[in-house]
Amino acid sequence: CTPKQNMHSKSNSTMEIDTTQTEKRPVVFISYSWDDTAHEVWVLQLADDMRTKYGIDVILDKWEVKLGKHLPDFMANSVKKADRVICVLTPNYKKKSDGLTGGVGVEYSIISAEIQKNIRTEKFIPLFKSGNIVDDIPMFLEGRDFVDMRDEAKYNEKIEELVRDIWNKPKYKKPQLGEIPKFD
Predict the structure, then answer these.
(1) What value does the mean pLDDT of the chain take?
(2) What's the Cα-to-Cα distance from 174 to each of 93, 137, 170, 177, rounded to whole Å?
(3) For residues 60 and 114, is the Cβ–Cβ distance under 8 A?
(4) DSSP string covering 114-147, please?
């Protein structure tokens, strides 16, 4: 599959790309279920946008896995290498992760083991693509803040929210404390 060209070409982004930037590029692994062709094309487009428009080094099975590759090894190494892991949530992703089936089931085991080592980790980002937020979040991601990309019309706004978090460049910055007032 190849992503649709310019699927999200209109950009209302308030971010600008800094071509002089020399800081380390974040590495992101995308975990998703192979629901159908349209979903795979959407994931490819997300990965492409993150890589080409936002300078994030994305690890995606479609780009990395060659015939004969040991998939569980690829998944374990990708989760380990990544600074952040995006879990693209759909009802099928939850079914496979909670049922420990397919590649998502393997990734569930790897991710949940990492979460057990550090329950407060912010490495894993739930991203809702479809389904119900209450019913379709896998057990290992419950209680974590997430990005909601179910509304295609908000794609640009939500991808900006996502990449700002990955780059640790928040849109809203906490102001410095003011001076202590003088009390009589």
Answers:
(1) 86
(2) 35, 30, 9, 9
(3) no
(4) HHHH-TT---EEEEESSS-TTTSS-GGGTT---E
Token pair belonging to 154: 């908000």
Q: Please give the average per-residue pLDDT across 148-153, as a whole number.
A: 93
Q: Tell me 88's DSSP state.
A: E
The three state secondary structure string of 26-39 is CEEEEECCCCCHHH
Residue 21, pLDDT above cutoff 80: no
57: DSSP letter? E
- Alpha-carbon distance of 76 to 112, in angstroms, equals 12
Supply φ then ψ for residue 162, to 5 degrees. -65, -50
Instruction: State the amino acid at position 74 in one-letter form.
Output: F
**So what's the pLDDT on residue 123?**
92
Q: Tell me, what's the pLDDT at 103?
A: 83
Q: Encode burial over 162-184: b for 16+ CB neighbours within 10 A, e otherwise.
A: bbbbbbeeeeeeeeeeeeeeeee
**27/132 Cα distance (integer angstroms):** 28
CA separation for the pair 133, 40 (Å, rounded): 21
Residue 134 near residue 97, CB atoms below 8 Å = no
| DSSP H helical ranges for 68-119 | 71-81, 91-98, 102-117
89: confidence class by pLDDT, cuts 50, 70, 90: very high
